[in-house]
Design brief:
The structure is a homodimer. Chain A is 49% helix and 6% strand. By secondary structure, chain A is α+β, with helices and mostly antiparallel strands. In chain A, strand 1, helix 1 and strand 2 form a beta-alpha-beta unit.
């Protein structure tokens, strides 16, 4: 397996943590999104939309979408389980994973991509390129992300992990989100004791170094 | 099973078509999003974020997220298969399903929610409410949706269905998207012959009436 990666970007890290939980080592190729390497001819020959992460599997399958990559990894290497063990747990993990994306990761990404100067003319990742930043969307993303943090603390008051008793892909999504939020200088507030408890717990896993 | 539904909204229809493919009949409760019924106390007692579709399963599980609902239905009623039959097909269907959402359904929803007068103060579905429409986001959504249609025609030049040879959830997502686009008066262009061929094919399935 070969992962086209960017060390500082949140979506590639979701895959890196997923792999680390499975104790899998893969070849990694660093592609610098800020410098636009993802839109180079060489990379577009591999990943036609210029998206990171992109994974080349040993059977030749190429996937350019984080959760799809995780789903294939889980099928090939089922243990430890990160996507659910039966129909109900798979559905609940999917529910949480998607809400965490739509409520947390995407608003944060909107905030970042619409305010970071290097992306002023590339506010949407990959091709087609050329979308200008929308300042009002950055501001809305900032507001939504603050509310996401409030909801996260409420959820974690009642649940060990995001989706319930099992550490899952939903925790990986949120860990990558809250760590990435450092670039816009937003952290889990100290008074969010349940989120702080969860953060210490998941950050102490060896996979969090990925 | 009980589906909290809105006949004219695209996300509930994804679940209705999914159910119809399985030939399942469920109780349906119509909730009018335009009139804000999803934010009524009664509905929030069932679905705390006020999101549609929400499904109450016979085991008491409540899910308020379209794809998570479909995943649980597929686990309970595996035939006909709509999410993939092995690790690789599940990953490819997920890849296409998610790209169709991010590139098609979401830009269209951004266009609609940020330009339709009834949602001027509710540009994000459900709670927390009160986000004002962003006109520049409506315009960007409109542009992105046009490019999505171009890409769709290219994809369907080379593939019978969206994700390959199998009719899948990715086709359901796109069918609900292109039909919903009528509300903003955008249709698949006549000259997009591959998309037209696909559209006729999937619209002729009995499930498309759902």
């Amino acid at each position: 397996m070969k992962l086209y990666d960017m060390q500082s970007a949140p979506n590639p890290r979701r895959v890196r943590i997923f792999l680390a939980e499975k104790e899998l080592q893969v070849e990694k190729v660093e592609i610098n999104l800020v410098e636009g390497e993802n839109l180079s001819e060489d990379f577009l020959n591999i990943s036609p939309r210029g998206l990171l992460p992109t994974m080349e599997f040993d059977d030749g399958t190429i996937l350019d979408e984080s959760v799809a990559i995780c789903r294939y990894i889980e099928a090939l290497y089922p243990q430890p389980n990160l996507l659910g063990t039966d129909g109900k747990s798979r559905a609940l993990i999917e529910r949480w994973q998607r809400h965490m994306e739509f409520d947390g990761l995407i608003p944060l990404a909107e905030y970042f991509r619409n305010s970071f100067p290097a992306f002023a003319e590339r506010a949407i990742p990959g091709l087609p390129a050329g979308y200008k930043a929308i300042p009002a969307l950055a501001e809305r993303g900032r507001q939504r992300y603050q509310l996401f943090l409030e909801g996260l603390n409420e959820r974690l008051a009642n649940s060990e992990y995001i989706a319930g008793e099992q550490f899952s892909i939903a925790d990986i999504t949120v860990l990558c989100t809250v760590d990435f939020a450092r670039v816009v200088k937003v952290r889990i507030p100290q008074e969010h004791q349940h989120s702080q408890r969860w953060y210490q717990q998941v950050s102490a896993r060896p996979s969090a170094k990925a």
